[in-house]
Amino acid sequence: GAPQLPSDASAPGGLRLPPGIAPGTELTIRFRVAGLRCRPAGRQGSRSFKRLAQDLGIPPWERERTPLLYLDDRLLSIADHCLCAPFQHGPADEGWYLRWWWPGHTARRR
Hints:
The chain is an alpha+beta fold. It has helices at residues 49-56, 60-63; strands spanning 27-30, 37-38, 47-48, 68-71, 74-78, 82-83. It contains 2 helices and 6 strands, in the order βββααβββ. It has a 4-stranded antiparallel sheet, with no helix packed on it. A two-stranded antiparallel ribbon has the order 2-3. The N and C termini lie close together (11 Å).
């Protein structure tokens, strides 16, 4: 399966922001744009958003509103479904753990 964010901070993996982030660096949430690609952490080669969404089981009607996390203009993650390289790290490393919640959300079991 595709690399995924953990459901809690004690789970292996996570989202690592690069050390020494410069002042003024933006961490933003955006939505799908044409030509979006990600190289899933732990895999070779990049994949289109459409292909990743299919692999991750994101229904077509949810893809336009799936949150994408960016560090400046670098895609970090596709919601809590997939981390883009090089932002995954091990459980002993410091990092940010990301979990998406919305009204009516039920936590997914991994």
